[in-house]
Specification:
By secondary structure, the chain is mainly beta. The chain contains one helix and 16 strands. The chain has one domain: Clam (outer membrane lipoprotein receptor (LolB), chain A), CATH 2.50.20. The protein is globular and about 55 Å long.
Length: about 250
Amino acid sequence: MRKHCLLVFVLFAGCGLGFGQSGVGLRIGFADADSVTIANAPFQADVTVTSSQTLGDGNVLSRESRGKAMRDSAGRFRYQTSETMNAGKPMTGAAESATVVDPVADRTIRLSETAKTATTQFLGHGTHISLTYTNTTDGREHLSKEVADYVTTKDLGQKKISGLTCMGTLVTTVVPVGKMGNAKPITITDETWRSPNLQMVVEETLQDPLIGTRRVEFMNITRTEPEASVFQIPEGYVEKQFHMPTVPTRQPQ
């Protein structure tokens, strides 16, 4: 069966450095019998996303976004930002927001806590919500495929994160000389720690000379059920609704 990505919501996008977005995304797509909603694995956690890049003149660009993530037993997911830092200082004018992905109601909700608005997008027939946490590295996810012969994977074993046993993997990609007009090889490393119990990556560190260092951490994780109200539109918010078109049923090829 072929899988098709429809669109990607970047949930933890507080670390763009002016030239793109980074963070952990939530892939929303459709496929033939590809429902991967994560149910019966509730949690609540603090999330920190940091990025740092050293420029050619020695200047350093750094940014940090803090928030909270949670998922209930039905697979509903919510992430909300609480603070964004630039170079260690609170970012002025940063709007607090939250994203809710509800596979039960087949909808996503974008909440602006500053403007008190809710943008609801309903998914059409033939779509589903796939809670796949993906690292969005400025649209260059295809790079490892182009240099597949220069990609190695290492098993890092296990470690505990918030009491959860997590499995570590280190993927190293070497871009050979001349592939991107580079005079020397470029080495990119992506270290991830995945919780089998939560069925998701809870810690990731990407080191890429082209974009710097980016890190996502889920901390203070508790396997507790969130309040049902956090996945609903708060009273007093103005809602705008959008409906995605129905996806035609595809016949097996």
